Amino acid sequence: MPLPIALATLLLVASPALAAPQASPAPSTRLTPTIDRGYLGALQAANLFLFAWATRDGDAGLELISDRLRRDLNKKRGESWFRVYMSGLGNPHHEAFEIGPGRRLSPSRYVFPVRLYEIASRDRSGFAYTGTIEIARQRDRWAVDRLPKTPDNP
Q1: Structural domain includes residue 153
Q2: Which residue range(s) make up the domain with 70?
Q3: pTM, to two decimals
Q4: Cα–Cα distance, 87 to 71 (Å, whole number)
Q5: How many domains, the chain?
Q6: What whole-number distance in Å separates Cα of residue 117 and Cα of residue 130?
Q7: Tens digit of each residue's pLDDT, the chain (154 residues)
Q8: Which CATH number goes with the domain that contains 111?
Q9: How many CB atoms lie within 10 A of CB 11?
Q10: How far apart are CA 112 and CA 56, in angstroms?
């Protein structure tokens, strides 16, 4: 076989292999234990509390606050204010929430950035309130120690 034909045949056979994109390495599926148990407990408490807020469940919210926050609320505003904070107005109403990555303040305290959403009936868009929620270890459980800021809680 003359050299030009052999070279053309080699290029024709090798071209698809050369042109095929290289597969990128698969992402690692190995779990690494980088998140401590305290962080996960605090995150769970924040999630449960904000779910109670979104579903307007004042009783569940009351169960999830710390003794310190409960005392502070009773002195300044009363339990009835807290129930209104949790249940919101009829319109707009609590719709959803987001929790960002938290930060450890101490072994018994974490703070998480949050965004709370409300929407009025028949509106095409809602409102978002950005703030933080602080979670503290209280005896054998994690509890909300500072409420997120909202128009009801400036």
Answers
A1: no
A2: 36-146
A3: 0.75
A4: 20
A5: 1
A6: 9
A7: 554 554 444 444 444 444 555 555 566 666 666 888 999 999 999 999 999 999 999 999 999 999 999 999 888 888 888 888 888 777 777 889 999 999 999 999 999 999 999 887 777 778 888 999 999 999 999 999 999 876 666 5
A8: 3.10.450.50
A9: 10
A10: 21
